[in-house]
Task: structure prediction
Amino acid sequence: MREKPAQLVSLDAADAPGGFREPLFGLDAESLSKLLISAGEPAFRSKQLAEAMYRQWLREISEITTLPVPLRAKMASEGWQIGRPAIARAFQSVDGTERYLIEFAGSDAKGKTAEAVWMPEGDGGEAGDEDRDQPGQPVASPSPQHLAERVGEHNLRSSLNHETRDWSRATICISSQVGCAVNCQFCLTAKLGLQRNLTAGEIAGQVVAILDRHAVRVGRDRVNLVFMGMGEPFLNYDNFMAAVRLLVREVGLSPRRMTVSTSGIVPGIERFAQEQPDLRPHLAISLNAPNDTIRAEIMPINRKWPINEVIKAVRRVPLRPRERITFEYVLLGGVTDRPEHAREVARLVRRSGLSAKVNLIAWNPGPGIAYTMPSPEAVVAFHKLLVEEGIPAYIRQPRGRDIFAACGQLKRTVEE
Ligand code: SAH
Ligand code: SF4
Result:
């Protein structure tokens, strides 16, 4: 006989019963099972808990009807909470893009919010290459029952997208840090500096909050995921990869529909090269300049890891059949958008020997950033030159510029 009832041990915080505890959302199957076993519960309870959080997207312990009532009561009295990140505000663009201010439940008061974006239809540029030869799968409307289950459940749900589904595929863009330390001169997120790393639960939770809002049917709807929001994922490597594993193993998303973008953090790329190929996203490198001189000016990180070092590290990433590396290239008016730059980029990509494509992004303006947008003619000419040189290249359509949701515009701009 125990003198005291078993307490569910906290893995992250040794808080008193009833006090604040770090969220359960983000714990993987193994951690959940340790937690429940240490509380004297059978291991299968952890599966029920995981199922409730990651597949059913429940947000309160009290809603998990597969768990016995006394266990739910005990967890609540000890201060446990699912603590999934929540959409605190949503801004809607004329093009259907939505930008969200996501609020985290953790105890860290600093950096309580980050941003994520939903882009219905996308522009195809983010789609996984392994899908590129497949025509779009038809997507049926959500069943009335599926919708009815959700009505009234979530007060912040969009009234537009879940009643009549007005998308057939979509891209979700999420943040890996609050702010960013990399200081690219053209990026609005850089202005925040780095406030903190997000945890695996906070990264994966952005995705689940958005899947839930749009009633996405995992495994059936075509939804791409890009780690291209605020922050540098490879400077928060462990949490970023733990989030990927959660999203793949627990939530059921395919890593072939995910792309991570890095400014070229060589140690991160080297670690990425060691990951199991079927458990990692596609890789995109923010090249953004044709040579080290221009790149170091607009991306100070280039002084630490110049282009050749980055490419050397990328060569170590074993690619899946038909997989390509993406080079992202932001066109800055007069700075990186000239024809000679395009020829230099073509040479650089060819010499890299990588199976690669180039995504061209016209620079998105932001307050306090002294660059100019490239002319539409310069973008088209740049693209044409790359294609003539035999380099697969795509022009990315800017999404949600009017609500500061486009690439490089995420800065928690709450005022509209
Ligand atoms: N930190 C990572 C991922 C987030 S940024 C990285 O830099 O790769 C995602 C992409 O947006 C990067 O390719 C970056 O170069 C681009 N970007 C940043 N600011 C931009 C802006 N103002 N306009 C267009 N693209 C921008
Ligand atoms: Fe950070 Fe990426 Fe912005 Fe550079 S472009 S400051 S790495 S978020």
Remarks:
- Residues 1-5, 9-16, 127-161 have pLDDT under 50 and may be disordered.
- The chain has two domains: 15-77, 86-403.
- Residues 157 and 213 are 5 Å apart (CA to CA).
- The longest helix spans residues 237-251.
